[in-house]
């Protein structure tokens, strides 16, 4: 029988019921619930991972039936590998410190779910607290590429714990320019050929020994950086 806990809206969240996506806040201190690792065709797939205090795939922990013990928790595993798919169900018997469990996947082609639990011991019972899933779009510069990604994460103990990172776009950056101050001069190097006229206009001169453009430090490194960043697809890196 599948253990059930109450969600934030009072909905029973058994393994066969789709949890409320990213609702957060649901708390239960009843008996441990069951989690299911299941792969069936192209639609029925469920996954369980521990994200905190370190990353751990429960599929690796649940290779065999019976009691499975780690330094963080004890599981009771029911393992049905009678078919070519994987069908494992486990219940938390004990936890030795707070852990964060990421339970996600699809119960059918039209019913997917994603839920995160803080699992900890409270008053001798195992408590499950659903943590709200947050999302943010971030831009990162890697080499000569500008990558825009969406990350989903939860926050716990002052940490941001990333669940997934999905790339939205990737564009080649035309110029990567390095700027630094050396003694009494500003040095600009990197992909400077296409911006050389702007550098000349700002009183920079080409130094063949440094293979870089130099100007008096009195120009102000922040002012030079701001001017260079006005050009589309320019990344300015400092101190390299």
Describe the structure.
- By secondary structure, the protein is mainly beta.
- It folds into 3 domains: 106 residues, no CATH class; 37 residues, no CATH class; 64 residues, MutS, DNA mismatch repair protein, domain I, CATH 3.40.1170.
- The protein contains 3 helices and 18 strands.
- Strands 1, 2, 3, 4, 5, 6, 7, 8, 9 and 10 form a 10-stranded antiparallel sheet that branches.
- A hairpin with a 3-residue loop joins strand 3 and strand 4.
- The termini are far apart.
- The N terminus is likely disordered.
Principal-axis shape: elongated
- What is the H/E string? EEEEHEEEEEEEEEEEHEEHE
Strand residues, percent: over 45%
Number of helical elements:
3
Kindly list the characteristics that best describe this protein.
240 residues, mainly beta, MutS, DNA mismatch repair protein, domain I, 10-stranded antiparallel beta sheet, 5-stranded mixed beta sheet, 3 helices, 18 strands, 54% strand, elongated
Helix-strand blueprint:
Blueprint: E1 27-28, E2 34-40, E3 44-52, E4 56-57, H1 58-61, E5 66-69, E6 73-79, E7 87-95, E8 99-108, E9 111-122, E10 125-130, E11 134-142, E12 145-156, E13 159-172, E14 175-182, E15 185-190, H2 196-201, E16 205-207, E17 212-216, H3 221-228, E18 234-238
Parallel strand pairs: 14-18
Antiparallel strand pairs: 1-10, 2-3, 2-7, 3-4, 3-8, 5-6, 6-7, 8-9, 9-10, 11-12, 12-13, 14-15, 15-17, 16-17
């Amino acid at each position: 029988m599948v253990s059930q806990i109450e969600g934030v809206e009072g909905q029973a969240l058994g393994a066969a019921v789709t949890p409320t996506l990213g609702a957060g806040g649901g708390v239960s201190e009843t008996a441990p619930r069951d989690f299911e690792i299941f792969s069936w065709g192209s639609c029925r797939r469920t996954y369980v991972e521990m994200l905190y205090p370190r990353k751990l795939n429960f599929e690796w922990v649940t290779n065999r039936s019976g009691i499975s013990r780690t330094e963080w928790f004890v599981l009771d595993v029911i393992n049905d590998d009678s078919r070519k798919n994987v069908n494992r169900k486990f219940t938390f018997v004990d936890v030795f410190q707070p852990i964060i469990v990421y339970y996600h996947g699809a119960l059918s082609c039209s019913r997917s779910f994603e839920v995160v639990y803080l699992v900890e011991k409270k008053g001798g019972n195992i408590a499950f607290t659903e943590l709200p899933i947050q999302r943010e779009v971030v831009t990162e510069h890697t080499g000569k590429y500008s990558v825009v990604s969406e990350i989903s994460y939860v926050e716990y103990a002052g940490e941001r714990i990333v669940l997934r990172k999905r790339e939205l776009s990737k564009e080649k950056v035309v110029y990567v320019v390095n700027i630094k101050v050396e003694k009494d001069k500003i040095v600009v190097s990197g992909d400077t050929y296409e911006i050389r006229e702007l550098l000349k206009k700002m009183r920079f001169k080409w130094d063949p020994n440094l293979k870089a453009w130099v100007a008096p430090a009195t120009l102000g490194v922040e002012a030079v950086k701001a001017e260079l960043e006005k050009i589309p697809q320019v990344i300015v890196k400092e101190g390299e």
